[in-house]
């Protein structure tokens, strides 16, 4: 019953927020740890190594051989875990690198403008707009819970706008941002590049205070796995990051308005909707969400998995599936008795610790820890499109496991009624876990935008369509934006910009004698849709529907 997660030695003296259910789980975990330590040091009834270990007095060793530091450490471990949302470290200023070894504490609008004008031939400037505010980044570490509710920690960032423009001063709106799937164990939003830089340019430079968790299992977090697409845990992680930020912001002399926006991309789109659900159903007295934007997220998790096992795998699935099943297993779902029940023998051994990794994906493939892209056996029907990519002899998932999954799909079909897509009675443990975390399970009480692209090879747009149909069937239809389809008037310019970006990608591929179709698909999810859906989210937040 004892947790493997280290308990912080010092409980910071901060104002804690009552979160009954999750605090109770954390307290139980701490109590179990204390009980275990007591048993180890107790009498012979425990039968453990602690019972047979002689005391310093009986062994003839001087009592001073047990250092005061060790004693203090042991006593500190008996202290209750800090409540979720406790600020453990920070806020700490993060210097922003400029290249050539130079860095600045704050990125001024003129400097950011120059960066955006150089990036992608000025496309990023057209997307983000002329920066109004400087950007300052702080990192923090906060208490949160793991997949089972075990006490752990996570890192995150607070990005602050500054400057003389009125839109950068006074109480500012808060954007709670959830990042997309990353495979790098050391990932941190504090590094202002890639996704973090885009978010900073799109929102912080326009006057938003951005709070963005790294997620438990990444960066400074001590959790040895990542609770990938565990809706309750990931929403709790977001809530705890915001709680910690609320403690940190007064220390930075920052005031915020009452506007709270939630968004995220890919995995983060899923997390954003899970957070909207959690804030309205469990934390309504603490948070009021102004509006939410889910961007290319796997909201209809069960439907997507059923499609994958039916022969239509997504790009990247050989990395995403181990992340998902490990998260379920670590959260107590018992998806398998051993990894070899689900995964082929070359990959089963150690697969629960492969991702997130400190190595590149290419290196993991070369080392034989993951296949190059084949999810299913080459001779295993049914097979949909792209069979040559996702079906081969060096595959990840056992055919016997896939057959059992498909038998359950046939016996217990789901999704036949848009209003009740989860009203099925699966007997398959993986499908039950997916069903539990499918987000077609609530009705939004604040405005919601779902944005994506019809040709997305990583997260199919069918997720957004299915979620939209479910919400609409319950009378709370969100705005649905397919960047490939005719758009509402408010998004016409965004759709036109997306079309031009796709054409530029195609033309650039032709100019370099590359396959233009492949070039578009390779950039579709990670760059093209991401940039323009974030642009749509910002427009939506400016004028959300009532």
From TrEMBL:
Q: Which SUPFAM superfamilies does the protein's record reference? A: alpha/beta-Hydrolases
Instruction: Give the Gene3D superfamilies listed for this entry.
Output: alpha/beta hydrolase (3.40.50.1820)
Gene Ontology molecular function, alphabetical: serine-type peptidase activity; triacylglycerol lipase activity
Gene Ontology biological-process entries: lipid catabolic process; proteolysis
Going by the UniProt record, its keywords in alphabetical order are: Signal
Start and end of every Peptidase S9 prolyl oligopeptidase catalytic domain? 200-283
Q: Name one Pfam family in it.
A: Peptidase_S9
Q: What is this protein called?
A: Prolyl oligopeptidase family serine peptidase
Q: Which organism is it from?
A: Rugamonas brunnea
């Amino acid at each position: 019953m004892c947790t493997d997660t280290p308990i912080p030695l010092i409980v910071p003296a901060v104002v804690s927020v009552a979160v009954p259910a999750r605090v109770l789980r954390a307290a139980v975990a701490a109590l179990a740890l204390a009980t275990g330590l007591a048993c180890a040091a107790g009498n012979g009834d425990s039968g453990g190594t602690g019972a047979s270990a002689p005391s310093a007095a009986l062994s003839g060793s001087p009592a001073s051989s047990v250092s005061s530091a060790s004693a203090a450490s042991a006593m500190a471990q008996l202290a209750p875990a800090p409540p979720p949302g406790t600020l453990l470290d920070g806020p700490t200023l993060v210097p922003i690198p400029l290249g050539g070894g130079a860095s600045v504490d704050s990125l001024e609008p003129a400097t950011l403008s120059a960066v955006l004008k150089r990036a992608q031939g000025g496309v990023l400037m057209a997307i983000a707009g002329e920066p109004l505010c400087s950007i300052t980044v702080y990192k923090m570490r906060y208490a949160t819970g793991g997949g089972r509710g075990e006490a752990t920690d996570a890192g995150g960032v607070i990005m602050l706008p500054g400057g003389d423009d009125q839109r950068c001063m006074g109480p500012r709106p808060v954007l709670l941002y959830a990042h997309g799937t990353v495979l790098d164990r050391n990932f941190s939003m504090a590094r202002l590049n890639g996704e973090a830089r885009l978010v900073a340019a799109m929102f912080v430079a326009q006057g938003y205070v951005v709070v963005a968790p790294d997620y438990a299992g990444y960066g400074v977090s001590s959790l040895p796995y990542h609770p990938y697409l565990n809706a309750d845990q990931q929403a709790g992680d977001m809530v705890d990051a915001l709680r910690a930020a609320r403690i940190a912001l007064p220390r930075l002399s920052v005031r915020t308005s009452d506007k709270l926006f939630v968004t995220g991309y890919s995995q983060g789109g899923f997390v954003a909707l899970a957070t909207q659900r959690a804030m309205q159903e469990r934390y309504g007295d603490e948070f009021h969400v102004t509006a939410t934007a889910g961007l290319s997220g796997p909201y209809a998790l069960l439907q997507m998995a059923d499609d994958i096992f039916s022969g239509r795998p997504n790009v990247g699935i050989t990395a995403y599936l181990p992340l998902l099943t490990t998260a379920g297993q670590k959260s107590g779902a018992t998806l398998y008795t051993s990894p070899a029940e689900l995964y082929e023998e070359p990959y089963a051994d150690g697969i629960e610790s492969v991702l997130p990794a400190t190595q590149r994906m290419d290196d993991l493939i070369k080392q034989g820890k993951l296949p190059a892209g084949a999810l299913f056996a080459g001779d295993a029907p049914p097979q949909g499109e792209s069979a040559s990519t996702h079906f081969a002899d060096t595959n990840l998932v056992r055919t016997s496991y896939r057959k059992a999954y498909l038998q359950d799909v046939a016996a217990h079909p789901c999704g036949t009624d848009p209003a009740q897509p989860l009203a099925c009675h699966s007997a398959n443990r993986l499908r039950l876990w997916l069903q539990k975390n499918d987000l077609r399970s609530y009705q939004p009480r604040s405005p919601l935008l779902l944005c994506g692209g019809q040709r997305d090879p990583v997260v199919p747009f069918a997720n957004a369509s299915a979620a939209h149909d479910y919400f609409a069937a319950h009378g709370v239809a969100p705005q649905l934006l397919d960047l490939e389809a005719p758009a509402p008037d408010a998004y016409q310019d965004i759709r036109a910009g997306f079309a031009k970006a796709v054409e530029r990608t195609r033309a650039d591929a032709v100019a370099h004698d590359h396959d233009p179709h492949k070039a578009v698909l390779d950039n579709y999810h990670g760059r093209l849709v991401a940039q323009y859906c974030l642009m749509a989210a910002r427009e939506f937040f400016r004028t959300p529907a009532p």
